[in-house]
Each structure stands twice: as C-alpha cells, then as structure tokens.
Amino acid sequence: MSQAFDVLVIGGGPGGYIAAIRAAQLGFKVACAESNAYDDPKGEPRLGGTCLNVGCIPSKALLASSEEFEKIGHHAADHGIKVGSVSIDSKKMVQRKDDIVTKMTGGIQFLFRKNKITLLKGHASFEGKGADGYQVKIDGKDKETVTAKNVIIATGSKARHLPGLPVDNVLICDNEGALKFESVPKKLGVIGAGVIGLELGSVWRRLGSEVTVLEALPSFLAACDVSIAKEAQKLFTKQGLNINMGVKIGDVKADKKGVVVNYTDSAGKAAKLECDRLIVSVGRVPNTDKLGLDKIGLKVDERGFIPIDDHTCATTAAGVYAVGDVVRGPMLAHKAEDEGVLAAEVIAGQKPHIDYNCIPWVIYTDPEIAWVGKTEQALKEAGIAYKAGQFPFMANGRALGMGRSDGFVKVLADAKTDEILGVHIIGPNASDLIAEAAVAMEFKAAAEDIARICHPHPSLSEVVREAALATDQRALNM
C-alpha cells in the first residue's frame, strides 16, 4: 500500500522546506521529495536547494573569506596594524565553505525530524489524480508512488547556459563551478553583470584575479535605482573590476591554455578576452521539466514558469500550488520562503497575504546594495509625484570608524502623503539596514515616521534616518 499524505512538497529548497515545516506546524501529515545530491559524498539527496548548497550560503562564505583577506592585506595599515605578507589557501577557504553548507543542510534534516516530516529521496513527478488525491512517483534508490491531497511545487531554478557555449564547470563555469576553484585564476572572465556575476567576480578579484565582466545590456544593474547603479559602477571600477557594457558575445573557445572569448564591444568593434577561467552568469530558468505536469492538466508559459493565482499561489489544478523560482516574480530565496508559508496556510484555510512591493533585494558586493519598493525611474514613468532624500555614509561617524564610508541611503516618499515608496542603499551592512525600510513600508509608514524615531548613536542606521529627514530638507548632520 502506498504512503498517503495531506501535503506533499516537491523540492527541498528554501520555498520547499519552509512550506513543509509550516504545513507540519498546522497539523498536516507532510512529506517532502528531494533528488539532488549536490556532490554529497554518499550520493544522498541534500536539503536546502540551490540556495544552501550552491548559491546564497556558499557564495556568502567565500565573500566573507575574500573580504577578510582584503582587509588584512590592504586596510589593516589604516588602523595602525602592521602585518607581513598575506597569502590565501584556496583549498582551505573552499573547505570552510563546504563545512558551512554541510552544517546548514544537516540543520534542515533536524527540523524535518522535529516536525515529523517524511523525506522522500528521489525525483518526484505526477502520475495522475484519483479519488484519494494526486499520485506522485518517487524515482530514487527505492522507487514508489505516493498519494497526496495537496501538492506544493517548489523545484527552484537552474543556471541558464548560452547556446553553443558548453559549461564543463572546470574552465567554463556557471555558479556551481565558480564556487569550487581550488586556486586563484590569474585572469577571470565573467559573462553577465548581474547579481551572481558581480558577487563571484568580487570574490576572486579580492584574492588577486584580474577580472573582466562582459554584459550584453547597455545599462549597468538596470533593476536598481539609477543613482545606485551609477555609484556602484564607479566604486566597482575603482576597486579593479573591468566592466564592459553593451557587448555581443561571439564564439568562445577553450583549451588547456584557457578560454578565449570573442565579442563585439558597445562601439561595434571586434574584441577578444583571454582568461584562465570563465564564469557564465546570464540568469536562471525554472526547473519545471520532467514533473509530469501534463498528466494533471498543467502547462507552463513560454518561459517555463507555472501560472498561478497571484494571491494564493494556486495553480489551475485544484489542490496544487507552486512557489519560488518556478513562478512569476523575483528569484529570491526569501520570496520563495514567504510563498511557501503562504501556500501551506492557504491549504489550512487561512487568509495570508504577501505584498511583493515590500520584498527587499540585496547584492552582496562590497559595498552591499539593497533596496525595497519603487525606483526613482519607475516613479517618473508612472507619473507619481515624489520627493527624494539622500544621505552619505561619509558623514556618519560609525561608518568612518569602520573605514567603510562609501555609498549612501536614498529615501523616496510620496510628495503629498509622505508615504515611503522606496528605499535604496549602497553601503556597509545594506542587507541589514534595508529591513527597517521593509518593515516601515509594510506598515505604510511615512518618511516622517522614520525621521521621528530615535536611532542609536553611533550606528549605521542613523544614515537611514538622515535620508528620511532629507526628504523634507531637514538632514541634521549635513
């Protein structure tokens, strides 16, 4: 007799494992299917998805290591600290990253046991629907078919590869291969000036690589507020990243000597990039193939996403939900988590809500970039009257003491009501500072609200307050 569950979650990444835990908390009998081993030494499926295994967590571990290396080698003297020559043990750095990943994925297994969630080890695909629910085949070491009254699809995404450009994750790498370099390449090429490309390019630039970034779009970080993108390009170029916009990639050749990328620059001139290794970071595509969606009457759109109801994450198949990277919206782990919680609560008959305008974005470069809400250009295009306030970290005592005074905070507020419409940060700890803005926007706060709240001194958070004050030309420290 096959196992039967109230809720089956397909995919154990941020959206999936969080959905499973929330569903278990709500009293459902829950299972989660996961097939990806992510280089597990025993070949066992590993929970956490791309984020914990080959994305957010490992990349941040490498970023932290490279930041420490750069601080010691280039900034310690500013504090009166004398050091000798500094070297990097790349293998140990990568091993530290792997240890953190193992600890985190093991933590999810503990949470599954704690919440009595059944882990189904294998690839899940729909077989059909019967009177008792959906039949889902689990193709792993032990093949079985289970039944579930409700199914949450949370299978995430994978790196997009360019046609005719084979990724071997040795010389030509996507995000997975770029996390495994055991030595610092002398010359590193990066195709794509997006979040992943900039973060991984920053890692190896700090460790000594000569990094060249090739981007097809004419505008740098087009999703960001224009003033933030302009400041970021200036600072990254100053740090040593060679950023080329508006290029057209031609043929790419790899041999034992390295990689050669032929391309046309923004002026239409033929150019060539010779590098030891190449990172291809041109976006991600949803993992919606091989799910057997047709067997339950579901189809994906032209980009491979599963259409859903915007308020409940429900698909057109009754009792089937989809969350995270397989549906519309930004491919962000925290967005997937919130949707996972929402889907579980909808199944339980609750009325949860997600305000997608209040989901923060972060790029973990140095300085960090974070924003929530509308950009200035979006407000102009929409014809919304607004006022802007901006304050630099260079006027903040805490930032100066840390030796990290690049960047600024920008607050955009409605010209009539003063409601906060967007907050944009480039500077130290932006990933933490943006949370205040997200909370304020969820509560429909005005810029005056942040301006009137007492912030600790000295702290970086004072810059957020000063930017809010600046929307009314009332900044106190500038």
UniProtKB/TrEMBL annotation:
GO terms for molecular function: dihydrolipoyl dehydrogenase (NADH) activity; flavin adenine dinucleotide binding. Binds 1 FAD per subunit. Its EC number is 1.8.1.4. InterPro entries: Class-I_Pyr_Nuc-Dis_Oxidored (IPR050151), FAD/NAD-bd_sf (IPR036188), FAD/NAD-binding_dom (IPR023753), FAD/NAD-linked_Rdtase_dimer_sf (IPR016156), Lipoamide_DH (IPR006258), Pyr_nuc-diS_OxRdtase (IPR001100), Pyr_nucl-diS_OxRdtase_dimer (IPR004099), Pyr_OxRdtase_I_AS (IPR012999). NAD(+) binds at residues 192-199, 215, 283. GO terms for cellular component: cytoplasm. It catalyses: N(6)-[(R)-dihydrolipoyl]-L-lysyl-[protein] + NAD(+) = N(6)-[(R)-lipoyl]-L-lysyl-[protein] + NADH + H(+). Its cofactor is FAD. Residues 5-340 form the FAD/NAD(P)-binding domain. The active site is at 457 (proton acceptor). Residues 359-468 form the Pyridine nucleotide-disulphide oxidoreductase dimerisation domain. It holds the Pfam family Pyr_redox_2. Keywords: Cytoplasm, Disulfide bond, FAD, Flavoprotein, NAD, Nucleotide-binding, Oxidoreductase, Redox-active center. FAD binds at residues 60, 155-157, 325, 331-334. It is found in: Cytoplasm. GO terms for biological process: 2-oxoglutarate metabolic process. Its main location: cytoplasm. This is Dihydrolipoyl dehydrogenase.
